Automatic annotation (TrEMBL):
Necessary cofactors: [4Fe-4S] cluster
This protein's name: tRNA 4-demethylwyosine synthase (AdoMet-dependent)
Superkingdom of this protein's organism: Eukaryota
Functional description taken from the UniProt entry: Probable component of the wybutosine biosynthesis pathway. Wybutosine is a hyper modified guanosine with a tricyclic base found at the 3'-position adjacent to the anticodon of eukaryotic phenylalanine tRNA. Catalyzes the condensation of N-methylguanine with 2 carbon atoms from pyruvate to form the tricyclic 4-demethylwyosine, an intermediate in wybutosine biosynthesis.
Segments forming domain Flavodoxin-like: 84-242
Length: 714
């Protein structure tokens, strides 16, 4: 052995380490493994500890403070809701009734409640008190004409609007106040539907108040109402409000999972942050907060759950869409125009309701002529036998809400037919039967003439002017044809908002168009139409009337201080429609109504109506005053083509009309006829200037004792 090599092998430690390097590596690896295992154990323990802390934090602070040594100390409970204040702004009394109903429901919970008329409330002095009062404030507010608040809520809304945009109040002025809003409106007025309710909700939110339940929106339009009527809409919202009130008393802070910002759920898609929908109340209690610490192995389960729920939601929405599309064409068939509430209101007014959208009522002039006390102005102007006239309508709905509506707006409104539709044969049959039954009630009544009673049982005329807009009825032409087949003349009145229907209308005995104003602004003010393009529709209706060959009439209703100073504009409208006749009548005051500001001061005297007519005739060539009916405060202006050889022929030969209309039907509409083909001579007593002032001398004037005023027809 080489000695130098042996010395090198045992004297060098580096060589020894090199030779045993494998064992050294193995030792290092073992040590690192132990350190890693130790770190994993430590981190896991720390994670469990944090998880317990997060669970402890989920317990309300009040409860944690009460927990001592495994038991809860009995301490005095905090009052979370001290009471409810219900504010209402009402015009017709509906909102007031809803407020009373809500108060009754709140009282059943054992909570103090106050019902406050906004007209008697000063928000400048008292509203800020609700920030610390622990009350919940409910606002039940109606939307009136043109999206404006009702008179009782006008000041409150004005103050709230100004405060919400005044930097001196700020965005936290009402922070701490809790509120809820239910609005009343009519979706037929699409641009202004529930505008007041939306604004009150918005302004309160802008001032920092907290919405406790989604805004409710009641809809008077039974077709578009989500629950079938405004009463049903309110009941649904009231149930939600009471449920939320109970939750607040238990200390539940939010109806959602805590993901709301400024009263708005992040998950809900809204155009503006103050808007509230039912999604706000849907809740997310069943979801875990993804911002909290979650085990990686549980994350997959959560994501699968979310995806599954999303698929189910999409499937449900798809099914709902299919159902809505399938029912879209049948929607109008499912709902009747006459709701139970409307049926009750109209029945109290003396209507005999027919099917789901028609009605008949006995005119006071029918009763008057049965007793021989005189007929209506149509008897004077056109020779109608008032005791044989049936006043009816195949459509109780209307496209206007006129200030002088003699039904006080109890009828529904709409711009198109969306209701269940009855057949014209059934409507006419039941209308005649109901009319005859009402006539029968006069048998044996003192003063009723036997001959007129017998004649009254045989309907000869039909005035389609009871209420609503008859021309809206889709089968109006079939209905008119049935009338003529029964030898019943037709007097149809339309509000000049359906020009296409006027053009398509088959011949009627006499077609009326209501011309309640002569300018766009005054028409909007008086008729309060639903259509956005109401003025163009009005003008087009007059043009369509000019194309008619049978008798046409403008019907002007004079409302003092509203439309009596527009003579030149009226003259221009006359030249547009070129009517055969123009009836000018003073408005009839039908009593006080919360839906209209009309008073007796708006009713012109008969002398004032005569003065207006004289001035109007001076502006329209080829027209003269023909007849007068003083009892109805009404005059007739006629075109001079009905003045034959110096004598007026404004009356109607009804038998001749029936012959002409039968020829028209038999020829399929090829054989037409004109208004002059069925005229009859006007009697002298009916003419303007006659001493009878339009009262038929065959009848007897009736006056109450000690009364100088003639009340014929009353």
């Amino acid at each position: 052995m080489d000695p130098s090599l042996d010395t090198w092998n045992f004297s060098s430690p580096l060589i020894s380490l090199w030779i045993n390097r494998f064992y050294i590596y193995l030792g290092f690896a073992f040590g690192i493994s132990l350190w890693i295992c130790f770190q994993i154990v430590i981190r896991k323990q720390l994670f469990i500890f944090k998880g317990k802390n997060s669970k402890d934090e989920s317990v309300p602070k009040a409860t944690r403070d009460l927990m001592t040594n495994g038991y809860i100390s009995l301490q005095k409970k905090d009052i979370l809701v001290s009471g409810v204040k219900i504010f209402y702004g009402s015009q017709t009394g509906t909102a007031k009734g809803f407020a009373a109903s809500l108060a009754e429901a709140v009282t059943s919970l054992g909570l103090p409640v106050a019902v406050i008329n906004l007209q008697e409330y000063d928000p400048d002095d008292h509203l800020v008190e609700e920030v610390t009062s622990k009350n919940v404030c409910a606002f039940v507010v109606a939307t009136y004409t043109d999206g404006r608040p009702t008179e009782s809520a006008e000041w409150f809304c004005k103050w709230l609007e100004e405060a919400s945009s005044d930097f001196r109040f700020g965005k936290t002025y009402l922070k701490g106040m809790r509120y809820a809003v239910f609005g009343l409106g009519n979706s037929a007025y699409a641009n202004h539907f529930n505008k007041v309710g939306k604004n009150v909700d918005k302004w309160l939110w802008m001032l920092g108040a907290h919405r406790v339940v989604a805004r409710g929106e009641g809809d008077c339009d039974v077709v578009k109402s989500k629950h079938g009527s405004i009463e049903a809409d309110f009941r649904v919202w009231k149930t939600k409000f009471i449920s939320r009130l109970q939750a607040l008393r238990k200390g539940e802070r939010k109806p959602c999972g805590g993901n709301c910002k400024k009263g708005q759920c992040e998950s809900s898609a809204e155009e503006e942050p103050f808007e509230s929908t039912s999604e706000e109340e849907s809740g997310t209690e069943d979801h875990q907060n993804l911002n909290s610490v979650v085990d990686v192995e549980d994350l997959g389960k959560i994501m699968n759950c979310v995806k599954k729920e999303k698929r189910e939601k999409e499937l449900q929405e798809e099914k709902s869409t299919l159902v809505r599309n399938a029912m879209k064409g049948e929607a109008s068939e499912r709902r009747a125009m006459i709701t139970p509430a409307l049926r009750e209101a109209l029945t109290k007014q003396g209507y005999q309701l027919i099917g789901s959208h028609s009605g008949v009522k006995l005119c006071r002039w029918t009763k008057s002529m049965l007793r021989g006390r005189g007929g209506c102005y149509k008897h004077t102007f056109y020779g109608i036998e008032s005791h044989r006239c049936m006043e009816t309508t195949p459509s109780l709905a209307c496209a206007n809400k006129c200030v002088f509506c003699w039904r006080h707006h109890t009828n529904p409104v709409g711009t198109e037919w969306r209701w269940k539709m009855d057949q014209p044969e059934m409507i006419l049959k039941e209308a005649i039967e109901n009319h005859q039954n009402m006539i029968k009630q006069f048998k044996g009544v003192p003063g009723v003439r036997e001959d007129r009673f017998e004649e009254g049982m045989m309907v000869k005329h039909c005035a389609l002017s009871l209420v609503g807009e008859p021309i809206m009825y889709p089968e109006i032409n079939r209905f008119l044809k049935l009338l003529h087949e029964c030898k019943i003349s037709s007097f149809l009145v339309t509000n000049a908002q359906f020009p296409v229907e006027i053009r398509n209308l088959k011949p009627v005995t006499q077609l009326y168009v209501s011309v309640d104003a002569s300018t766009k602004d005054s028409l909007k003010k008086i008729d309060r139409p639903l259509f956005k393009d109401f003025w163009q529709r009005f003008l087009n209706s007059l043009k369509a009337l000019a194309a008619k060959q049978q008798r046409t009439v403008y019907r002007l209703t004079l409302v003092k201080a509203w439309n009596v100073d527009e003579l030149q504009a009226y003259a221009e409208l006359v030249s547009l429609g070129n009517p055969d006749f123009i009836e000018v009548k003073g408005v009839t005051y039908c009593g006080e109504s919360s839906a209209s500001s009309l008073t007796m001061a708006n009713v012109p005297w008969h002398e004032e109506v005569v003065h207006f007519v004289r001035e109007l005739v001076a502006l329209i060539p080829n027209y003269e005053i023909a007849c007068e009916h003083e009892h109805s405060n009404c005059l007739l202006i006629a075109h001079t083509r009905f003045k034959i050889d110096g004598e007026w022929w404004t009356w109607i030969d009804y038998n001749r009309f029936q012959e002409l209309v039968q020829e028209y039907e038999d020829s399929g509409g090829l054989t037409n006829f004109s208004a002059k083909d069925y005229v009859a001579k006007t009697p002298l007593w009916a003419l303007f200037g006659a001493s009878e002032r339009g009262f038929d001398p065959k009848d007897t004037r009736y006056q109450r004792k000690n009364k100088s005023k003639d009340i014929s027809g009353c």
